[in-house]
Amino acid sequence: MMGVEGMEPWMLILILLVGLCAGWVDAVVGGGGLIQLPVLLLVPGLSPLQALATNKLGSVCGTAVSAATYYRRVRPDLKTALPAAVCACVGSYGGAAVASSIPPELFRPLIVLALVGVFVFTLRRPSMGEYERTREGHRRHYVIAALVGTVLGTYDGVFGPGTGSFLVIAFVGLLGYTFLQGSAIAKIINFFTNLGALAFFVPHGAVVWQLGLALGLTNCLGGYLGARMAVIRGSKFVRVFFLVVVSVLVVTLGYTVISDLT
């Protein structure tokens, strides 16, 4: 199995820099996987399943640090986040189990349409996510949170790109959190989705450990810096950056869909 010692130095440096950038973006609004995974797919000798599994190892390190940073500074609602995270972890494990048998081409057109909808929905509601309008304590609130965790956890295990962004908009748009609180909760859930996928990938020997741990170090630094930036700048900054990231996701995945058709 490939390790970092078998890679060209420029490729390793590129991967580490991408990991830093992905960790930062992921900590603010999610979407870091769309930066990180394509670069791993370029590594010679790395299968798509190994790339997906190694990406999860790097991401779990970054999301652990960003989730801890958010928790210390924002104090997200754990009564909502933790049950949803457990559901997401189970969903992600199941999604990872079928990841190798479902072509990504089946998902991309639907994800592009969903992201366009998210972009328009957010753009047309400029005050959304600025003030908290949650209904904590109501059963419906926790049921929706658990369903969001299960569905997006499964998606993250199967495919992944944009999971963090979908989590943010779900907790802001459906449950009434601010963008800062939504990002904090999303990071806790995203950590568990990465953990659930790894619970499947590790026993199957799909993780390239040296590469994944090296990636994890830069993800940690990026995750810490991104979470701190989001906390300092607040919900308005997170909302604007969220729209930017969703736009990039739409363009990137849309280009891939068009390329597949031609």
Helix-strand layout with pairing:
Layout: H1 9-28, H2 33-40, H3 48-74, H4 78-97, H5 108-123, H6 139-158, H7 163-174, H8 179-201, H9 209-233, H10 235-261
Helix pairs in contact: 1-2, 1-3, 1-9, 2-3, 3-8, 3-9, 4-6, 4-8, 5-10, 6-7, 6-8, 7-8, 8-10
- Alpha plus pi helix count: 10
Helix and strand sequence = HHHHHHHHHH
Q: How many DSSP-defined strands?
A: 0
Cα gyration radius (Å)? 17 Å
Structural class: mainly alpha
- Helix content percent band: over 70%
Please state the average pLDDT score: 87
Q: Tell me, what's the shape?
A: globular
The total tally of domains equals 1
Largest sheet report: none
Termini separation: 34 Å
In percent terms, what proportion of residues is strand?
Answer: under 5%
User: Low-confidence stretches at least 5 residues in length (pLDDT < 50)?
Assistant: none
Keywords:
262 residues, 0% strand
What does this structure look like?
The termini are far apart. Helix content is 76%, strand content 0%. It has helices at residues 9-28, 33-40, 48-74, 78-97, 108-123, 139-158, 163-174, 179-201, 209-233, 235-261. The radius of gyration is 17 Å and the shape is globular. The chain has ten helices and no strands. By secondary structure, it is an all-alpha fold. Helix 4 (78-97) packs parallel to helix 6. It has one domain (8-261).
Short overview:
The protein is mainly alpha-helical and 262 residues long. The chain has ten helices and no strands.
